Recover the amino acids of this structure.
């Protein structure tokens, strides 16, 4: 496969719909970018306009204002045939075609390149073979696509876009119907494709956890603005907390987890070796206690040892010992109930 | 495609072709008058000493009828296949979506509206072209309406119900026109509605066959695009397919195919839905480069068989072809419904 590299720039872009009453702007003033070799996640809560932005990026719907540029050339200046050689798309819809083998599905990806009958040359076959390799679908070539599992089907759809051999791949919610293992595997696959094939890959998701662990950059869609940056930059600037601001979900900057807002149960400190300490904090935070570094300010002081023995040093009338985090949490919760 | 699959497809095609030839000959052979096979062959190849009467039966009645059966089977099957793909609907076909009813409406407008012009030339070539043109316009109108709706409404059942409604509306128009038309006009229209495979004359065949070939040619040209359409519009668009062009080609091809057959044979149901599914079942593929020729051969075979059955071999009378094709097609359709319960796609 040839390796043309394409970077994406969105300049002051407005996306939305033209209705009879006029323009219905969904998002405006978007200034975002993605470079070759980079995996970008478009993150936002449901219904915030992720699909609208992706559709505009692919040229499926008109742009209201501003421009989308590939290597500096605006999208609308590309002919549809030429655009098909720059950008390929993986839809969120599950394709349910009967009697179509994986090999035939992948062959469709050569559409922009083949003659009008669609004859596959030796080169086309090599490209198909390589795509099968890259997504790990060896041995599935002769399977009917409606007999594949969800994860396998998604791999096949990604392979089809690889066969289209475009420097840019755009995916709308590629992990939507997958179980947790397949979610991670698909995102990891995209990560490798971006890195090793130097493709520019943008996918939408509402799963910030997976995005945070695999992507190079996040386009974060909030109610009134759209930001971009490495996941860590967005966390450090406190933007993650705004993602689900309306939904009572908060982001714990220390643990990297999202959780529901909880009732405050008092502060605690933990002493002990690093790993047991980290998960003791996790357990107590989950139960609604607030961690503090400063043992003197904490209402409860807990110690944990390498042998996984927990002790409450202060904060209760007499010191108490536990052999599991579960017992520790249960004890503290019951004690609070009594008080 | 692996080489073993290629070999399997090639032998299947050969088998179907031989079957088509066999049933074509059988169809000419069957009729109320028993003519020896040897004599049929010698008449067909033009060196027979058979009586003029028998020659007329073979050349002017049975041969055109068999050719019409082939044309009808091919045209309805290929138009059904294209509709199933473009609407992504396994139950689409020219009959259920009202395309055939639209063609009837077109012919009714011509025969009941301008029959004074027509009565002179009903069976001449120019008359035939007039009928076929009106049938194309009628089926094109319904096809256009359904295409327009299907861009907004994606639900398979809604489209089917709309097709049934369009068909009813078209036949209501025809009834109203019949009510207001004069006796002579009505007579020529009734003659047309009684159309069957056997009523197509040599001169009409000169219109029918080129029309069907034209529609088929367009279908062959859209095969590659139709494959991509199977994945849905977004995928098709993302691969650089001009969707409007494909829609237009399918629109023209199906209107010509279904319209021409309805113009001369009257509405023939269920072949358009059933045959493409039999083709998919036999060839286990979704590729239109295989499904189109497969539908051509299977459509011809099934209509020839239906025609042979309709002759009730050994008896004087014949059955209306539409009821025979219904009996052949409906079990296939029931099978499709039971198989996919949830209607998703072709």
């Amino acid at each position: 496969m040839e390796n043309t590299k394409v970077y994406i720039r969105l300049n002051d872009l407005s996306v939305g719909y033209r209705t009879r009453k006029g323009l219905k702007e969904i998002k405006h003033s978007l200034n975002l970018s993605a470079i070759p070799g980079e995996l970008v996640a478009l993150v936002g809560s449901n219904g915030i306009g992720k699909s609208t932005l992706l559709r505009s990026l692919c040229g499926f719907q008109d742009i209201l204002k501003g421009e989308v540029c590939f290597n500096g050339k605006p999208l609308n200046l590309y002919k549809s045939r030429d655009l098909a050689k720059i950008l390929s798309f993986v839809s969120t819809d599950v394709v349910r075609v009967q009697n179509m083998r994986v090999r035939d599905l992948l062959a469709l990806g050569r559409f922009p390149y083949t003659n009008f009958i669609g004859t596959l040359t030796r080169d086309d076959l090599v490209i198909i073979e390589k795509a099968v390799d890259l997504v790990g679908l060896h041995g599935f070539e002769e399977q009917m696509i409606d007999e594949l599992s969800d994860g396998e089907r998604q791999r096949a759809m990604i392979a089809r876009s690889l066969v289209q051999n475009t420097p840019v791949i755009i995916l709308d919610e590629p992990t939507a119907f997958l179980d947790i293992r397949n979610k991670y595997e698909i995102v990891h696959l995209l990560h490798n494709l971006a890195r090793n094939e130097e493709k520019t890959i943008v996918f939408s998701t509402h799963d910030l956890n997976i995005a945070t662990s695999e992507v190079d950059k996040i386009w974060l869609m909030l109610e009134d603005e759209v930001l971009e940056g490495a996941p860590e930059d967005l966390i450090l600037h406190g933007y993650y907390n705004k993602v689900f601001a309306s939904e009572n979900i908060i982001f714990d900057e220390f643990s990297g987890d999202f959780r529901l807002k909880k009732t405050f149960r008092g502060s605690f400190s933990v002493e002990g070796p690093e790993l047991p300490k980290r998960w003791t904090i996790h357990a107590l935070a989950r139960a609604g206690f607030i961690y503090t570094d400063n043992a003197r300010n904490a209402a409860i002081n807990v110690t944990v040892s390498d042998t996984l023995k927990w002790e409450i040093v202060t904060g209760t009338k007499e010191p108490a010992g536990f052999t599991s985090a579960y017992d520790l949490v249960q004890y503290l919760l019951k004690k609070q109930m009594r008080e | 495609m692996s080489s073993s699959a290629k070999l399997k497809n090639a032998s299947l095609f050969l088998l179907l072709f031989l079957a088509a030839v066999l049933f074509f000959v059988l169809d000419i052979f069957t009729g109320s008058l028993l003519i020896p096979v040897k004599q049929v062959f010698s008449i067909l190849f033009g060196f027979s000493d058979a009586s003029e009467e028998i020659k007329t039966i073979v050349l002017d009645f049975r041969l055109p009828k068999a050719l019409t059966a082939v044309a009808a089977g091919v045209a309805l099957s290929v138009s059904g296949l294209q509709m199933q793909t473009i609407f992504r609907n396994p139950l689409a076909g020219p009959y259920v979506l009202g395309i055939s009813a639209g063609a009837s409406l077109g012919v009714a407008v011509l025969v009941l509206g301008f029959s004074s012009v027509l009565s002179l030339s009903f069976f001449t070539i120019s008359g035939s072209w007039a009928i076929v043109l009106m049938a194309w316009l009628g089926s094109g109108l319904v096809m256009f309406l359904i295409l327009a709706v299907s861009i907004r409404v994606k639900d398979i059942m809604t489209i089917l119900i709309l097709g049934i409604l369009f068909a009813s509306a078209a036949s209501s128009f025809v009834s109203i026109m019949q009510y207001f038309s004069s006796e002579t006009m009505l007579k020529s229209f009734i003659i047309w509605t009684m159309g069957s495979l056997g009523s197509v004359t040599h001169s009409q065949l000169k219109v029918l066959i080129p029309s069907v070939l034209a529609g088929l040619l367009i279908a062959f040209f859209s095969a590659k695009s139709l494959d991509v359409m199977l994945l849905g519009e977004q995928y098709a668009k993302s691969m650089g397919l001009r969707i409007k062009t494909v829609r237009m080609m399918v629109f023209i091809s199906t209107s010509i195919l279904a319209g021409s057959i309805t113009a001369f044979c009257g509405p023939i149901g269920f072949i358009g839905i059933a045959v493409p599914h039999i083709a998919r079942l036999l060839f286990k593929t979704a590729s239109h480069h295989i499904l189109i020729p497969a539908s051509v051969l299977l459509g011809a075979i099934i209509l020839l068989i239906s025609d042979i059955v309709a002759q009730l071999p050994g008896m004087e009378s014949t059955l209306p072809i539409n009821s025979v094709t219904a009996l052949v097609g409906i079990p296939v359709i029931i099978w499709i419904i039971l198989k996919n319960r949830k209607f998703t796609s072709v």
Observations:
- Chain B has 14 helices and no strands.
